[in-house]
Amino acid sequence: MDDVRGLLAATADAAADFLDGLDQRPVAAAASLEELRASLDVDLHDDPIDARAVLHHLVQAVDPGVVAMASGRYFGFVIGSVLPAALAADWMTSVWDQNAGLYVGGPSAAVVEETAGRWLKELLGLPPGASFALVTGCQMAHFTALSAARLHVLERAGWDVNEEGLVGAPPIRVFVGADRHITVDRALRYLGIGNRSIVPVATDGEGRMIPTALAEKLSDGSGPAIVCAQVGEVNTGAVDPMTEVCEIGLSAGAWVHVDGAFGMWAAASPALRPLLEGIELADSWATDGHKWLNVPYDSGLAFCAHPDSHRRAMSAHADYLVHADAEAGPRDQLDWTPEFSRRARGFPIYAALRSLGRGGVAALVEGSCAHAKRLAAALAETDGVEVLNDVRLNQVLVRFGDDDAHTEAVIRRVQEGGECWMSGTRWRGQAAMRISVVNWRTDDDDIERTLKAITRAHASADSPLGVAAEQTRA
């Protein structure tokens, strides 16, 4: 254990050094692909190497290729940092090394997960009787929830998908907003529901599903149906009109699923919760913990208002396993998730929620939205800059100049400059910069540094020298 203690102490020092240096290091990775391969793609040796030597090599070789996603100036892809309590709990999760599939494999992990699930339902305003699953990300949260939806709607049509499979089953129509996230389509593909079953529904200028268009599409046909609504469009942050969407879908006999990968966390804020009014009427919900809750990867969350359908879609039984007696109260996690063996990802979520409390979660969400609005307001006052969305949550969509080339040049210059990082996207056929604010570390200084970096890149790309440089690069 002396050697292990030394190794863990060295690991803690390396981790602390990295976090202490976040404010000074470039946000983008510094090493090229060739450089990383030269330092990491080594031949596998014959004899063992001391663990501390392995750690030292790994830290030194990996560091130049690390993207500082934990930085308060990383605004790409709706990615949060890691709260200190969640980081510590995640380390202990690896130390405890529980297989969180069966209660017997880790009773504490099961009870922590059960408690975290209850807290999450309270925070997000979901029905207390809803079931839940902690999975790898929103992709698998969609898969889990839509598995329950598939079983449920086919059963109502007189078809047992668990017994009969999909061959010969009544076709399922799936109604989705035209600006849905691609993970919904991907989950449907995993479930054997092909693209021809997907019915796009028109959206407005912000990407919100138009209720009258949904009602019209639903009325044009019959049979099993699923409606996929969205809370937090990935570019604009827009929220579908949930009450209307749910009422229209449910009155047509459809299952209503909500993609709330990041936007659902607005429900944890008393000030922002009205934006999500009606979300509790849905049948299932999917969101991420590694986005706005700021817990480590990987952490997805699925909830279902029909626990029986959820459990029957996911559960498995084998004689060699030691299953919990459901009547006695223990919860076997494999009854609710796609995985058998799985990480005890409830520990970091539990620690994050315990450290923040209701007020802390609300402050994290509201603070992110305030930073996004400050960025948008300042950029909107800059010559040649247009904010393309109504900033209601944490997403800011920006266009520079009159053409795609200038906007793309600004994005590239910002990324290469290293002061901050955000991605590009396309919105309504035009290039745009997409800024996502979900990091607990982001503060006013980060916003000021980011604004200077963006405006500097805009001015540089717009100057004769900047234009010439971009033409040379092209």
Write the layout of secondary structure elements.
Blueprint: H1 2-20, H2 33-40, H3 51-62, H4 84-96, H5 107-124, E1 131-135, H6 138-156, H7 161-164, E2 173-177, H8 182-190, E3 198-201, H9 211-219, E4 225-230, H10 242-251, E5 255-259, E6 284-288, E7 300-304, H11 307-314, H12 346-380, E8 385-387, E9 395-400, H13 404-417, E10 423-427, E11 430-436, H14 444-462, H15 464-473
Parallel strand pairs: 2-3, 2-4, 4-5, 5-6
Antiparallel strand pairs: 1-7, 6-7, 8-9, 9-11, 10-11
Q: Which residues sit in consecutive blocks of at least 5 with pLDDT less than 50?
A: 464-474
Helix content class: 40-55%
Q: What spatial order of strands do you see in the largest sheet?
A: 1-7-6-5-4-2-3
Count of helix runs: 15
Order of helices and strands: HHHHHEHHEHEHEHEEEHHEEHEEHH
Class from helix and strand fractions: alpha/beta
Distance between the termini: 57 Å
- DSSP, total strands: 11
Could you tell me the mean pLDDT? 95
Using the CA coordinates, give the radius of gyration.
24 Å
Task: Tell me the fraction of residues in β-strands, as a range.
Answer: 5-15%
What best-fitting shape do the alpha-carbon axes yield?
A: globular
Biggest sheet statistics: 7 strands, mixed
